[in-house]
Amino acid sequence: MTSSRPFNFSAGPAVLPEPVLRQVAAEMLDWGGSGMSVMEMSHRGKEFGSILAAAEADLRELLAVPANFRILFMQGGGLGENAIVPLNLSRGGKVDVVVTGSWSRKSASEARRYADVQVAAEGTGREIPRDWQLRDDAAYVHVCTNETIDGVEFHDLPQLTNGVPLVIDCSSHLLSRPIDWSRVGLAFGGAQKNVGPAGVTLVFVREDLLGHALDICPTAFNYETVANNQSMYNTPPTFGIYVAGLVFQWLKGFDYAGKRGLAAIEQRNIDKAALLYGMLDGSGFYENRVAPSCRSRMNVPFFLKDESLNDAFLAESKATGLLQLKGHKSVGGMRASIYNAMSLEGVQALVSFMKDFEARHG
Ligand SMILES: *Cc1c(COP(=O)(O)O)cnc(C)c1O
């Protein structure tokens, strides 16, 4: 089925796969012959139970999550986790944060409310800094593996050799590529970038990190409590989990370049990013300022060298059916977020618009 919808480059909440939206629409009034919308079901009934179980199993399979990790469906978003992680993992002790951009900077300042936080290294937002000053007695090290605003991505997870657990905020590239769980203690991500609607936060936590929450940790945010209650200590975000579950099924069946599932979506993400960065680098009219070794496959900030053309660029791109290309206010310029659900055709359309715009205004 081909779409006539515009291409949506929003950084989040962001584009969802059209087949998923169509299925949600078709099931809106009556899910699976139950006579109820998913929004109207008890979270403890067998219908929602089956939705949650399938979502968790599919997610575990897609990301090859090891058996000693629990998957939690929470609320509070990435910013909520900036508090929930130190409340659960810091034990009131030391936390090292590597600052690679806006989101990890926010994580460091929130964790300061609960722990002794040290910035282990700080980049400019255009690269991953070297020479991390890590403390062997830290409770964990926090990194943001894809800086949504700056467009900086870790293409390999750091291998910490001192046994300190690594916590990753992977909100904006979760499910765009595999995760090397051997290097991770805890991963979290809000759903609204690459996974589903806003309101669901996914947490993957290694079992040995459960059970150390501070007394002041709200019970509903205690990972051990949430895990022991299969994400149903309190009412989970049922509709969002349902939509995310449909996204997982879409991903499992995704075919591209002779590959299937996560490998297929990763390959398409690589191809989309190569197309867009290739055009930017080949142009004297546009530029991306992030070091090539850590450019994000998901969020591509770029600038028109003549910034007086910004308004015209945004107006014309929108009129062409290319939506939400304005950059984050802290960075300026433009940003194209090209998450899993963005097609190759969408990026091709963006690239040809940009070439055409350059020809007319360059
Ligand atoms: C969007 C985002 C957040 C914040 O998510 P909220 O759901 O708004 O709390 C945190 N970290 C990263 C990397 C993000 O992209």
UniProtKB/TrEMBL annotation:
**Enzyme Commission numbers on file:** 2.6.1.52
N6-(pyridoxal phosphate)lysine modifications at: K193
Lineage, top-rank taxon, reads Bacteria
Catalysed reactions listed for this entry = 4-(phosphooxy)-L-threonine + 2-oxoglutarate = (R)-3-hydroxy-2-oxo-4-phosphooxybutanoate + L-glutamate; O-phospho-L-serine + 2-oxoglutarate = 3-phosphooxypyruvate + L-glutamate
Q: Indicate the segments forming the Aminotransferase class V domain, all copies.
A: 7-350
Recorded hits in InterPro entries, A to Z, give: Aminotrans_V_dom, Aminotrans_V_PyrdxlP_BS, Pser_aminoTfrase, PyrdxlP-dep_Trfase, PyrdxlP-dep_Trfase_major, PyrdxlP-dep_Trfase_small
State the free-text cofactor note: Binds 1 pyridoxal phosphate per subunit.
Q: What does the entry list as the binding residues for L-glutamate?
A: R44
Give its localization: Cytoplasm
Q: Which cofactor does it need?
A: pyridoxal 5'-phosphate
PROSITE patterns named among the record's database cross-references: AA_TRANSFER_CLASS_5
* A single GO molecular function term of this UniProt record: O-phospho-L-serine:2-oxoglutarate aminotransferase activity
Which Gene3D superfamilies does its entry note?
Answer: Aspartate Aminotransferase, domain 1, Type I PLP-dependent aspartate aminotransferase-like (Major domain)
Family to which this protein belongs? Belongs to the class-V pyridoxal-phosphate-dependent aminotransferase family. SerC subfamily.
Known HAMAP family for this protein?
A: SerC_aminotrans_5
Q: How does it assemble?
A: Homodimer.
* Role noted for this protein: Catalyzes the reversible conversion of 3-phosphohydroxypyruvate to phosphoserine and of 3-hydroxy-2-oxo-4-phosphonooxybutanoate to phosphohydroxythreonine.
Protein name (Swiss-Prot/TrEMBL): Phosphoserine aminotransferase
What is the species listed in this Swiss-Prot or TrEMBL entry? Roseateles asaccharophilus
